[in-house]
Every structure is written in structure tokens, then in C-alpha cells.
Amino acid sequence: MELRNDPGVVQFVKCANDYVVLVERIVNGDNVAISVVSKTLAILYAAAFDLPNPELADKDVLPDTFNMTTDDFFGIFNGVINWFHPKLDSIKLEPAELEAITSKYVDADLAEVYSHLKSGLRAWETGNKAFEPEIVFEWKFSFETHWGCHAVNALRVMHDLAWKVK
Questions:
Q1: Considering only the top CATH level, what class is 3-52+59-162?
Q2: Which of 3, 20, 58, 83 is at 20 to 30 A from 101, Cα to Cα?
Q3: What HEC string does 2-25 produce?
Q4: 42 CB contacts (<8 Å, ≥6 apart)?
Q5: 91 - beta bridge partners?
Q6: What distance in Å separates the CA atoms of residue 162 and residue 75, rounded to the nearest whole number?
Q7: Inter-CA distances, 88 with 2, 50, 75, 106, Å
Q8: What is the DSSP letter of 66?
Q9: What's the pLDDT tens digit per position in 95-123?
Q10: Contact yes or no for 43/15 (Cβ under 8 A)
């Protein structure tokens, strides 16, 4: 079966697109509820478990042009900060709770997940079949080793906050 038609890949690409679009809405100033971000991230996290293990004929076929630049990343990161920190102002938190939450770097976690997805989605959208095994491999590998941990960290904090929103 071609990767583009694999049910796990199809579902993951949909979830990844949903998450990326949501983060871009946040960066553009939309007032998105913490619960919406949590739900979208949780669905994405679950979908990653169904990614297949593609055969890689040749690693590094993806050109670097699909990667996010440092400026791109910090633009997303700063946009998420500008969304997340005012949310904290609307929640009644004790000083120790606020310190504990801000020390968890939810904004960085959300931006990290975004960056690992966006590069692959850029390449995926070209429709170049030669890129597909490496894209899926990178999504799965980085989920298992990196962005999955960021997702769990963000979900943990947002779960706690979701029940404290006024």
C-alpha cells in the first residue's frame, strides 16, 4: 500500500494539519480556548501511534528548503507565548501554582510540536512520492523521541488549567 493511502498516515496528516492550522490561528491572534488546543493535541498524539514504519531506500532525500528557519520557529514561539500567558491571567492561581506552570514551558512545547509537523507537511503537500517514506519516518521517529514528550508535557499542564478557567 502506498503511504499516501495508508489509513494511519491519512489520519495523521489530517490531525497534523488541524494542529498546525490551530497554532497558526493562535499566532494570528485568535482567542482559542485551552480546551480546544488540548483536544487537538491529544487527537494528534493518539494518531501518531498508527503511523507505519516505512522502508527508507535513501535517507536525506528531503531538501532543507522544507525546514523551518530559526526566525520561523521564534515567530511561532512568540505567538504562542502571546496567547498562553494572558490565559494564565484569567485563571485564579496561587503564586506557587503560577510559578510551577510557567516553569513547564508549555509555549515552547507547543511550538516544538508545530515545528516537527510543519516541515513534513510542507514536503507532503508537494505530492512527491520520493519524499513520503522519509517524511513518515521523521514524523514517527521524532514523535517517539522528541515531540511526543513535548505534547505530553503541554497536555499535562493544559489539563490542569482547563478545569481552573473562570
A1: mainly alpha
A2: 20
A3: CHHHCHHHHHHHHHHHHHHHHHHH
A4: 155
A5: 165
A6: 25
A7: 45, 34, 21, 12
A8: G
A9: 887 777 776 788 899 999 999 999 999 99
A10: yes
